[in-house]
Amino acid sequence: MSKPDALLVDVAALVESGHSNQMPLTVVAGGAVITGRLAPEAVWRQRVSEVLADSARLSGFSAMFTTAAREDGPPAHLHFHVARILQGTVGIPETGGMYRVAIEDVSAWTMGDFSYSEH
């Protein structure tokens, strides 16, 4: 079990405090490069719940994202929105997705998000 980067935990804690849902961040986790913006967990959960509620097949999962699961102590996860997994010059999905990444799984990170080009 790796020890989470204290500076990254501090960044996540500031986002969780509600100061910003526009913090651009890029991380490497499990060999994948994920780039996007961080959101507080409550905002992320609400958005995921809304997306699921709009789906005829997945609406039953919506309610589980509306319950508060925030624990005391430092954040253990990063909550990305408008995020993409970078694969070569392509970002997946094109429109951006919602990702939850365990901070302890992050092996590298940088402030800012990466643009990508299909040229």
Topology (elements, then pairings):
Blueprint: H1 6-16, E1 23-29, E2 32-38, H2 41-53, E3 77-87, E4 90-102, E5 106-111
Antiparallel strand pairs: 1-2, 1-5, 2-3, 3-4
Question: What report would you give on this structure?
Answer:
It contains 2 helices and 5 strands. By secondary structure, it is α+β, with helices and mostly antiparallel strands. It has a 5-stranded antiparallel beta sheet with strand order 4-3-2-1-5. It starts with 5 loop residues before the first helix and ends in an 8-residue tail after the last strand. The mean pLDDT is 86.
Summarize the structure.
The protein is 20% helix and 37% strand. The protein is an alpha+beta fold and 119 residues long.
